[in-house]
Automatic annotation (TrEMBL):
Signal peptide: none annotated. This is Endonuclease III. Its cofactor is [4Fe-4S] cluster. It comes from Paenibacillus aurantiacus. Residues 33-181 form the HhH-GPD domain. It comes from the Bacteria. It holds the Pfam family EndIII_4Fe-2S. GO terms for molecular function: class I DNA-(apurinic or apyrimidinic site) endonuclease activity. The gene is nth.
Amino acid sequence: MNHILRVVGEMFPDAHCELHHSNPFELTIAVLLSAQCTDETVNKVTATLFQKYRTPEDYLAVPLEELEGDIRRIGLFRNKAANIQKLSRLLIDDYGGEVPHEHEELTKLPGVGRKTANVVVSNAFGVPAIAVDTHVERVSKRLGIAKPDDSVLEVEKKLMKLVPRDLWTETHHRLIFFGRYHCKAQNPACPVCPLLDVCKEGKQRLKSAATGKPVTKKKKLTSKG
């Protein structure tokens, strides 16, 4: 694990949250929108969304159909629009219009799962956390940190056990960058990977490429907000 941390740290020393936001509320909305959608698309939508809507009250001041239209380019936009309005109502009624700092309270918000809560507490409030998205899950399983059939929660627990707590947040970002820009789901850069020595799948891919035999398919990765 120390070897992996050192290598990804050297590769992506400035890894960070790529969702554009200026406060905890905007970050919460952006992460909610990012489920099954790229950060790039979310940023294009929130560039205008966050100009129109600045507070929970703003999201409740328009018909649901109008909000749906504003985020139509986002996958599952109808469900997400409904969750944004429910979340906004709950923030006003129970939290004085402010995003709560506690992980447990965040997961009570509509559309906010464990991953989203981890992203918010770590990036908005400086609380160490490891959010396991599809990139972190894929990389962790390929590098043998977790087993192929481990659940998202099991992957998170194993990372929390192996990585020093003060490195949780930066490790989360670096593993995302490693998975997003290097160890991609399709066509990972195995031939030039500095972690090939600890990656059984990478070695198998190179061997298969040399022999012409396909890589054995593994269990499909699933990660929810």
